Fold these 3 entries.
Entry 1:
Amino acid sequence: MSFDPILAEIRFGCGLSPNIAPSESVGEFLAGLDRPDEMADRFPIESFPEFRLRMVKREELQKEFRKNRGTDAGETLRKEIRLLKKQARLDHWTWMASHVLRRTHSQTPFKERIEGFWADHFTTAGKAGVIRRGVSPFVESAIRPNMSGNFSDLLIASVTHPLMVHYLDQDRSAGPNSRQAKKKPGKFGLNENLAREILELHTLGVDGPYTQGDVRELAELLTGLTFKANKGRHFQKSLAEPGEEIVLGTSYGGDKPHIRDIHVVLRDLAVHPATARHMATKLATHFVSDRPDPDLVAAIERVWRDSDGELSVVYEAMLRHPMAWTDRNPNFKQPFEFVSSAARALNVHPRTVQSLTEKKMRQRFFDPLRLMGHIWQRPSGPDGLDEDDSAWITPQGMAARLQWAVIVPSLLVPQLPDPREFVKTALGSRANDTVRFAAGAAESRADGIGLVLISPAFQRT
Amino acid sequence: MDRRSFLSRSVALGCSLAASPLLTPVSFASAPGDKRLVVIILRGGMDGMGAVAPYGDAGFSGLRGPLTLGDEGYIDLDGFFAMHGALRPLLPLWQDQQLGFVHAVSTPYRDKRSHFDGQDLLEAGGFSLQDGKVRDGWLNRMMGHMSGQNAEMAYAIGSDPLNILGGAQTVQRWSPDVDLALSSQAIRLAQLVTKDDPAMSAALAEGLRLADSDGDAVAVEGGMQDMMSMLQDNAAAGRGTSYETRVAKFAAGRLRKDARIASFSLNGWDTHANQGRVLARSLSALSDVILTLKSELKGPAWKRTAVVAITEFGRTARFNGSKGTDHGTGGAMVLAGGAIRGGRVHADWPGLNEADLFQRRDLMPTRDLRAYTGWLIRDLFGLPSGAVERDIFPQLDLGDDPNLLL
């Protein structure tokens, strides 16, 4: 077993397309990571620094509003705040459209899939107000530029990012002996949330060699890392715990707390053998199978360790391993992969998606995804989407997919293709007699397209 | 046994469709007793003092203005508390002692008053959020202490995550807003194309069965036009009988069979402005849900049912500048069902003088809402107190028995 252009598109890409030829080799398939980012140019998503200006503006307006409450000027300000919030909400739908269209039209589809993988690994969200719309800008600024370099840079960019600092309560954490805690006892305290998730989810993994003591020490080391809309992410010394902290037996920091200490511990965690093991398993599970071949995991892990987490060679190790191409225990597409690979097979025109109103974006994408079990950019916890296929192959999930597959395609293309042709476009060499028969026997084009999309040949990767 | 192991087992054994546990839930061990529990999460923070007004407290009218009792207003319950007029349809239940309330309670959550954190703690059942997020819910942990599990025992209904039921124990999930409408031919062909994939085919079969039993039919003859119009009819039906009622109907349908635990959310409690209108609408939905459960559970099953509605926090004791209330602390719980010893409002009443309020702004919680919930599940399912106080609700002191059940 080795690189197979069709399977590469299905398993590691965004599915087959009627007008984009599959890559012919591992080299070509991976080259897309470093080419100019054509998809980002065609289907833009706001960067986080730009997005933050909305939050700054919101705070300024709020401050003015408080001064002018009850007056006509106050009323005008209240309307401006409402408009600003509405604009962020409307824009976040256009970013969702961009995510769909990048997957539909990319010549370098691995880039979109690996972005999805890391965006989920570093799951984050805003909790209230404008920042709730900040997930796509986070992915665009913290994840997308750092996916083919060293893991430590990706780790630092993600976990010290304003949105993560907000999501995992780092902005509420103060060292027990920090100046702030001493000044106002009882008001400020340590919050372990970010520290725990860094160890448990982002690096070593839940079975990793760390203790509650390490969580606490890391949490103390992280104090000072905070976020305010007008200042951005910054290091506030008055919140920082003075003195050294011992994480996994190594001493960090000292009497003069500095954000450099946080970078140092994150770089050490990034190259820890347990992180290599954890990430190799997760990559193989996400892309290949819920029960990945141990040799495949070991090969990825070895290269991760040898290269200190150089991501492009890690990806290459996965793609070059024969067991990455096995057909045993194949994965089941997660909801967004299902929907976007259907859009790719249908070659949905960019204008069709870009011109959808908020209501139609909900009806065609957000609501169906929710019924399939994925609430877009509103995670139920920092552990993100379930890698376990049984979380998605549920009665409700299957019913929702069938419903989407029969109805929504006809709303996304001016004319549905002939289902017998669509079998070849969407499934390539994976088409089998049962699907061909069903596509031909369907009473309508819509049914026929839906049956191809619901088939195991389309949904399994 | 968790979902993962039973699915992989059915794959490993090469189970035929007919023997799949998803299709034949009754093939599992019998259900653990015949008591039923419905947990409703009121998301947004219900105003306990608006739902059940302590009008007998001399401080009440100073905070909320004079209270109108009678046909157009609140309904007196016991000379001290009065319930909101939107709950009037529940008055017969109160008189039959199948409706009760708990007042001046909250989770251990304090100070920050965030929906996000408040709901996390409410559903996790924990004592504090400082240690990071607990990822399983207390209802799921409770199932771990019950014997005779079956695959259909618990239902999370609706499309929100319902972390309260998340965890190692198997939980079924269904949202009645999946509006499948297919020709019989398409249904047959969909079953055909998935037949060689046991997991997909079992899930699809069960999905079709549930979609057919949630109040709107699946099979529809005719082409695309008919299908679209059927979906619109369903949407119209959804407007006639509210989504909440459909959820309650579906829950009752499952509870009449093998399910013993059901949970779902009701939204719309974050009444920052124009509370009069908004709270009435949400309470009216809650009232519809309780009455739907009662009528659909039909007699004997209702007699063995306890319904409990809980919320992440109460609201400020005073109205704010926009005729609403802001996020607060102490609040109320609603209890209903034939298994409940109703007709009373449980409260260790803190008083409403300025100094009695929590941080001089919120109703003071005098007891952990987990203690009431803890007694309820302990008595309903015969759970050991130790399991309730340590595993299901960590660091809980159950305290005195409030005698919630008959």
Note: Chain B has one domain: 32-176+242-392.
Entry 2:
Amino acid sequence: MLERAKSGFTRAIPNWVQVRIPRLGDDTRFAYKLLLPAFLMMGIIHFLPIIWGFYISFVQLDASYVSNWWNAPIVGFENYAKIFNPNTIVGAEFWTSLRQTLIFTVGSVIGIYTLGLGTALLLNRDFRGKLAARTLVLVPWIAPAVVTVLTWQMMFRTDTGMINHILRSVGLIDGSFFWLIGPRSIFAITAVWTWQNFPWAAIMLYAGLQSIPEHLYEAAETDGAGRWGKFRYITMPQLKPVSVVIVLLMVVWTLINFTVPYVLLGASPSDSGKVLMLFIYNYAFSNWSFGLGAAMSTVLFIVAMILAYIYYTRVIGGEFEGGAI
Amino acid sequence: MEDTSKRILSRRQLLAGAGAATATGLTGCLGQFTGTTSQTSGDVTLKARHFATSGVEKFYEKHAAKFEEETGISVEIETMGWGNAKQKQLNSITSRDGPDVEEIASTWMPQQVQSDAWMDLNELGASLDGVYDQPTNVAQHDGITAGFPWFWGPRGHLVHQGLLDEAGISEQPSSWDQLVEQSKQFKESFPDKHLFGLPGANNWAVTQYYAMFVWQAGGKLLSGDKSEAVFNSDEAVEALNFYKDLATKHKVAPKASAEWDGPARDSAFINKRIAGTWSSLNTVDKVVSEGDATRDSMAVYKPPAGPNGQSATFYGVNLVGIHPWTDYPDEAAKWLKYLMKPSVNADIASMTGFLPTIKSGFDQEQFSGPLYQTFADEVLPGAKTFPQVIGWGEVEGTIKNAVTDVLTKGVSGDWSEGDTQAALDKAVQQANNVLSEN
């Protein structure tokens, strides 16, 4: 029977198809064996949850089925229909959260890149105490996130916080602004996330600046280029590859950031600070609506992928050669 | 020619090592899914999991030993923080594995009962005779008695009596209007302090305070049969407007209270920036231990009544239940019966700073002080809690959105007439969608 099946399978393959499985050498096979435990662990820890999350986004996994999740009915795209319908509770909040997440992401990436570039350009100049400055710049990035965010929370408090005090003393505001509740909470999380991450961008860009060949600037000077001309036509193009990496990673990291909004604004912030990760967590775990939570996570994953794709195809445009780093 | 035998041997050793490490790692990961009930030397050891409330471990040190002496059954305690408790309980319910006995938060109970997380205590012969009616109603859900109400925390009107005396305020505020009047008097003596303060938009408990105002105004959250949300009634609108006006129009509370979370409110109360708040009894312990107040300098009253003369308050209750996957239901039932003794119930309440759920617990020595007796005589009769319905989490979410929206608009000056009604109408519509689905 097995033989017949085998021969049938062989007959089904046309003769012109030649499947060539490369013969692996002993060393290569041994290398794969060595890698196998790591692959197994990665599969279990990384890929299985992603596949499982994608699966349960099509399942009605709520309080009724938590204890017997294997019997949870498959509901097709019902969870997706609910989150895309602005007339449902989850749908109304999903769209608000998605909008706020995009504002948070765009604002943060612009802030991080701009501050990072400015800092990198400053660090690239020769001055006394450069090493100390370079180390100090890294402090926001290496300091424990929860501690720094809680410190920012104190600074943002309306009555006792330093931010309002400074703004009042320089005459920018009269009374006291609420930063942790209401429409300004999106500014608060964007500011803190930007502050935490600009050092990383600065160090990456500084490394990029260090690797730009000096003769390019000398040639530009010979051609009469000024400071702006050198920056525009040499520095920025040479930094393009590293900039791509920074922007891409920051977009993804910001989209999935949970710590800053959660610690700064609490579990259930005003609409303005309600980013998608926070909303997904709250909704799935407060209401035990894991199917809907998984559907929202999948949408967030797809949004991140689309943004990355657009960035690669439109902004990079295939010019990914040369340059710093 | 290179001798590869040593290299091959070391590779094999490396492979074996990697395999062993993987196996060890996986075993470690799976370890948490193995049974947690253990039997040592022929004696039963029950596993109990509780919230990390201050005093619980001390209670176990004393009573687990006593219980073991009486029955030969030992009880081991594991504590969990509120931050990860829901996740831990969910993991146990999903895997049908975990502790034998566990603490239940009342607001999570309907979902957990629906998930078959708790045994019916009636089947194990446990009785809730002598327990206050309100916690008993919480314990009995969907036809079963899911847990024994262990202790509860009705919110009283806590005040720094010394500050009020200095301001010449000698009586408790019996109504909302009187609270506002007293605030004006208080401001004359203490222009930099406030008479009262509650957590605001940055706190989940904001829904509890809103519920108190609604009940005091004579309104309800859900209809009598719990099928419909009614927290957009005239009374409910008046309640939310009063909550908002406390920090704005009436200046009874600081404007900054709109963004307070629980710790920020506690800090203001401990440092006497506010003279009064609504909280459970354990806040008194916190104020005494962290501030310069003494128990004698503090007083508790029932919360003031709303326009229709009702004084109502919110309470939360912590229960203890038995999971259906336990191998020792009878032993676990014995432990619960031990916990139900009035003296033991009084002990846990006193050690955690909450109140006993068994009425005769108040006859115990620990509860003889005036603070406790005021709670027993004045506060408890008006204590209510959230409706126990499936989907309450989502309904509560809609209430919170509406309340925080109005509070935030109030303090930022963006509120206008009709905003409160509109916010509550929207929330009710969403809540009704949830209730109709369940």
Note: Residues 1-9, 22-41 of chain B have pLDDT under 50 and may be disordered.
Entry 3:
Amino acid sequence: MKFSTWKRITAVALALALTFALAACGKGDSGAAPAGDAGSDAAGFRTLDEIKASGTVNIGVFSDKSPFGYVDENGDYQGYDVYFAQRIGEDLGVEVNYVSTEAANRIEYLQTGKVDIILANFTVTEERAQEVDFALPYMNVALGVVSPDERVITSLDELGADDEVIVISGTTAETYLEKNNPEIKLQKYDAYAEAKTALENGNGAAWANDNTEVIAFAIENPGYTVGIPSLGSADTIAPAVTKGNDTLLNWLNDEIMALGAENFFHTDYEATLLDTYGADYEDTLVVEGGVTAG
Amino acid sequence: MQSLGIDVLFKGRNLLRLLGGLWVAVRISLISVALSIVLGLLIGVLMTGKSPVLRGVFRLYLETVRILPQMVLLFIVYFGTTRLFGWNLSAEVSAVFVFTFWGAAEMGDLVRGAILSIPSIQRESAQALGMTPRQVYGYVILPQTVRRLIPLSINLITRMIKTTSLVMMIGMVEVLKVAQQIIEANRRTSPNAAFGLFAVVFLLYFAICWPISRLAGYLEKRWA
């Protein structure tokens, strides 16, 4: 009997410890993030006024996707997305708190209101648009095709019956070519490095991938030219906010249009992407004032 | 050295950033491990108890922890509690909670196993000597249990330390994430930096886990 009494005491102590731990968590956090609490009653996001009043805007960016969002050797966030984020902070008149996001948790961050804006190379798709609200675009993405200088492929029609196109399995390029050009023979590789070696060895006539990838490849490796810089349905990259956060969304749209007047995104490109993609592709990649060319 | 790209480690504040990331990983794991050991001992004792309800509850708890990947637990605690209850747990509190939730369950099961492995004659002899149940536990069962636990718990502890790399999914920048940031930031100038940096990260994890394993070896010998 005594033995079980001791155990009962232990059980109570354990329950108390867990309760205390949980209570401590709750307390610590409501104190640390008063601004978050203010927004949570308005369906989990902070309105424009709440952000301005708090003095900080939380922006989710990539921290390891050079040259769009990365951290330099001094520990500062840099890149095309970050350059824009910095400007948003200045124009809102608040500090920017960068949150390091991964491709897999960007939507989750917005839906829980843990960040106000996602600026993480976020491609606009229909599925995503049902989960979050996209502002006007600020960059283009499409597929591109790179080929050796000796025989530059400038159109898919130039490919002969024996020519094979190199793709990386699981990429948009593979899906697009299989769907729209089933007559083209594909050579599939699992990794970037393998596809690169295959092209260098002349195993295929050309290599299709995201245009940013093939452009960067052609610039780093002399002897290759991007014959088709923009193929297929052109997608765009845009900032995203929590679904229903109209005040912030409208402010962002106005901001992007206003920045178009001063050619802000061209300046951004020249400051952050020029080294990687060169001047030739500036107009292919940049979207100014939210207006896409197509 | 040049070809491995170790030199990028000495650019700017990179080395400090990497060590800062290591501190984040160590801080989360040390707090969680300490909490797990304390709670695990209690849970283990309770799991060997007579109450079928209590045993059932802890069984359910243990199975839950076993089934759910740590990544899912992190998402549930960090994002899920915000969705469901509007709580705004910080990433660090969420991480410590998840790792303790996991560690305490597994530790509890290890303790349970270790207690059951003590021959019942030990308890019976102690009782025959007139010891109270508290004395039986304090002087006879627990000391022997703890000794048997050491090698088992070291596996769990080192596993917890290495698993902290998952906290990058809830926005925390720990040592592995810093390494990836440094590799990416230097992708064009030092394409091979990945080899060198991951080798350094390996050494850093080793530097944390090896002393723990040595301490365990020492304790095992001393208490044998």
Note: Chain A has two domains: 35-138+238-285, 141-235.
